[in-house]
Amino acid sequence: QVGWYNAVLQPAFHLPYPDDTLAFVVLSTPSMFDKALKPFVTKERLKIIRDPVDQCISHHLSRVKEKFPDQRVDVMFDYEMLPSRKPKFLAQTAAHVAGAAYYYQRKDVKLDPWGKKKIFGVCIHPKYGGWFAIRGLLLFPDIQVPFLAQPAPADCVSTEEKRIELLEQFNFHWQDGRYRDIIEVKERYSEEQKAYFATPPAERLRLLGLS
Questions:
Q1: In 3-state terms, what secondary structure has residue 15?
Q2: How much is the average pLDDT of 154-163?
Q3: Which UniProt keywords apply (predicted)?
Q4: How far apart are the first and last CA of the chain?
Q5: Looking at residue 206, what is its pLDDT?
Q6: In whole angstroms, what is the distance from residue 163 CA to residue 159 CA?
Q7: For position 48, what pLDDT does the model report?
Q8: CB 123 within 8 A of CB 134
């Protein structure tokens, strides 16, 4: 429900829908790279003009919309901004309230060791750890689900020590990706996928053989 999201945020970030509106958070798992991105790039190679991942996600979500010809379906992407430069939606908060992944933040640590440092939070998935991404929201404005039960996200980094380690690694050593393996994971990015996301966006097309 949109109301679960709006309830935990300041009004400036609220989604403009009634509280019991149905919404889905869209995640990409490690296999997205081989199962969706590479086939999309091969097929659409002459039409890739922006970021291949963004265009791939947009393509697949537009296909989801086509499955509901009689419904209004609004799509928001994780990279979209409002004119005020605020993001259209806060992806990690949405994932947490939907029960998809636990959003670990500074407030989840009782004995805060960081003083005046700014500490960003990070979502961890119970199966993929940090090896996943939140890509968008699908909203169904004409479908109300007042009796939908809110699922709690799996608290898979449950000790104080592990939470501190996670936030330290994410905030100060995110480039090495160690935070992604804070828990035992079932699947992670392939070496090719790691190389792709570690490459500056302007050079990624070359990696995929597009330039």
A1: coil
A2: 96
A3: Cobalamin, Cobalt, Cytoplasm, FAD, Flavoprotein, FMN, NADP, Oxidoreductase
A4: 43
A5: 77
A6: 6
A7: 67
A8: yes
Contacts of 46 (CB under 8 A, 6+ apart): none
Q: Which distant-in-sequence residues (6+ apart) come within 8 Å of 132 by Cβ?
A: 27, 28, 29, 30, 101, 125
- C-alpha 53/C-alpha 58 separation (Å) is 9
Domain locations in the chain? 2-204
Q: What is the C-alpha to C-alpha distance for residues 131 and 187, in angstroms, rounded to an integer?
A: 8
Residue type, 45: R
Strand-by-strand arrangement of the 133-144 sheet = 21-28, 133-144, 74-77
Residue 138 above 90 pLDDT? Answer: yes
CA–CA separation, 43 and 50 (whole Å): 15
d(CA 6, CA 72): 21
Tokens of 36: 């969706």
The pair of structure tokens assigned to 194 is 């790691």
HSE on the CB side for 21, CA within 13 Å?
20
Token readout for 129 is 């750890």
Paired with 74 in beta bridges are 139
Do residues 123 and 101 touch, judged by C-beta distance below 8 A? yes
122/153 Cα distance (integer angstroms): 13
pLDDT digits (tens, 9 = 90+) for 26-82: 999 999 999 999 999 888 876 766 788 999 999 999 999 999 999 999 999 999 998
- pLDDT of amino acid 94: 98
Q: Are 141 and 158 in contact (CB under 8 A)?
A: no
Amino acid letter at 196? Y
How does residue 211 score in pLDDT terms, banded at 50, 70 and 90? low
Residue 210 has pLDDT above 80, yes or no: no
